[in-house]
Amino acid sequence: MTKPLASATLGLLLLLAGVLHLGADPALAEASTKKTVTLAVKNMYCADCPFIVKKSLEAVPGVGAAVVSYKDKTAVVIYDDTKVTVPALVKATTDAGYPSVPWN
Question: Which are the contacts of 35, defined by CB distance < 8 A and separation ≥ 6?
């Protein structure tokens, strides 16, 4: 994924997840626990695969949103780091048959 495309995808994902707040909003404290991670996902070979990966991630308590790209073989996940860890996200995709690792 190119840097501009990754930035645009992340910005849209943040808006959809509702973690962008303007002004002095009490939700800002909650938003500070939101983290984003991009996972490199293996074994995605058909158009149904991203759907399965997305559902496996969204089933994890603490995940706010997941956007999975078949083309790039990645999953961008917004999660609450007080409720879930990156290894738990990796385990969720791996258990669904799609091993993943954090992607830099």
Answer: 78, 79, 80, 81
